[in-house]
Amino acid sequence: MSFQVFGIPVSRGVAIGRAVLVASSRVDVAHYFVAPEQVEAEIQRAFRARDEVAREFETLKQDLRGDTPQELAALLDVHLMLLHDEALIGAATQWIVERHYNAEWALSAQLEVLARQFDEMEDDYLRERKADLEQVFERVLSALAREQGLVPTNAASVVQRDFAGEDPLLLVAADIAPADLMQFKRSVFHGFITDIGGKTSHTAIVARSMDIPAVVGTREASRLIRQDDWIIIDGDAGTVIVNPSPIMLEEYRFRQRQSELERARLARLRHTPAVTLDGERIELHANIELPLDAQGAIEAGATGVGLFRSEFLFMNRNGELPGEEEQFAAYRAAVEAMHGMPVTIRTVDVGADKPLDRMSASELRHGHVLNPAMGLRAIRWSLAEPSMFRQQLRAIYRASAFGKVRLLIPMVAHLHEVRQILESVKKVQQQLSDAGHAYSHVELGVMIEIPAAAVMLPLLLRHVDFVSIGTNDLIQYTLAIDRADEAVAHLYDPWHPAVLQLLASSIGLARAAGKSVSVCGEMAGDPAFTDLLLAMGLRSFSMHPSQIPSVKQRVLRADAARLSTYMPEIMGSEDPRREAELAFARQKPAKSLQQA
Ligand code: PEP
Ligand code: MG
């Protein structure tokens, strides 16, 4: 039966394919394809792991002492029975045969199918056996992991596969932590859906950087969609169509082709300089998460990196942080890939919805930390860990010997934080000189993402070379809206007059002080805000590489001087969005550029 699920659109485009349900706690299970000639060997891997676990259970049973409660022996029997049930390993091998999934993926796919059946059982006793099934599954997974060295052991090492003739796969999960989603970069999934999340949650940001259609905050998708269902993700409307009719499929395939044509058309702007109709040169920089992304930035025509979110180097490492050499290698790789164009490296911004180790957003909200977005996040964490902070600064400074590096500090709200940062920078420069390490001049910037920083900007500007406005957090903290919480997503409003005031005044103050100012939050990459930001005087934007072409198209059609004349009306309006739409519509594009 066909039905629709509604959520929040976070990454544009249409994806059509088969649902792959992954439990949030198992998003890090390896997902890769095996070659047709390896299918048999993969099935044998699954059976070997099963037999090993069976032996473990038998040994446990034999070792039970006479005084052990009978229930324990009975429980082991239940586990053994589940292990040998055809519905688990036997059925899982079908996924290997038919879809060429690796054994771990096949098992987790089958577990999802079975877990659903258990959930629907009327009998309490039987329903509760789901926990036993999960325990058995975890043991088989551990047995598979022990075969390390024979196979890739994490999702980061997924095998690419030519999709010709194959059904694309779409990931469906209750929640995906940003670091886990990172592991799916360049992987097998062509789109994803989650139950929770907001438009500027970091999971959504990573989806945009992957440039795959995504819908979050659907609340129930992972419960309603079944393993292998056909689904359409409409990343523009925020709709998911489950088991679509042939007519719907045809319509969406048409839309998919249209958007591919549009992308191909926009890609032709790659080498066109971003200059407005009245001759203002606009910087279009890229936001990246990993050094590898720099290549995509170059291909999209970025003229620099405006935000390297270094925290992704720090995540999911089981508490072991990257050392100076590892960080230096990563920063240097990004700097060299940009061939002399500026690379703005932001110091680590963990906390809020970006935990260091795997923790779902709901765990964060309801369990471990009282109020993570307002807690020990970003620069607060760095200053609380001074040696870790200096280690990162040393790595960043050393990378400056290989190109133009700018240092950006997140979440600054106090002048004493800036003073501490400057002291650390001084110390690090001395340490590097003493050790004979080369480095060159590095501009220092702070992010404006806490309203306090925007309000006291003239004081901050005395100490820094540039500022970058993080609209994602600036909106979150100005409106007191958790950006990752779908329950308040409708109140997350970039057009709110208070947000516009802070944005316009920050841009104006920085320019008046002769300091460079950019926006690196999601507003910068959304063409719906390009005219507004130009009207406010912004000349530097940083966004995901995939967004550069459509923002550039807007820039080419804009008359910056004329746009700025509309600012008083917009800022004085009770409905700034409507006012801006009306005002900007009056700005007719020049004929020759209509086709740009
Ligand atoms: C922002 O807050 O706008 C920003 C760019 O930083 P992040 O999204 O990583 O918090
Ligand atoms: Mg931020």
Structure in words:
By secondary structure, the protein is α/β, with parallel strands linked by helices. It is built from 24 helices and 16 strands. An eight-stranded mixed β-sheet has the order 1-8-7-3-4-5-6-2. An eight-stranded parallel β-sheet has the order 15-14-13-12-11-10-9-16. It is globular. The structure holds phosphoenolpyruvate and magnesium ion.
Strand content: 5-15%
Ligand species:
phosphoenolpyruvate, magnesium ion
**Uncertain stretches of 5 or more adjacent residues:** 149-165, 590-596
**How would you sum up the major sheet?**
8 strands, mixed
Query: Radius of gyration over alpha carbons?
Result: 26 Å
Distance between the amino and carboxyl termini: 43 Å
* Alpha-beta content class: alpha/beta
Sheet with most strands: strand arrangement: 1-8-7-3-4-5-6-2
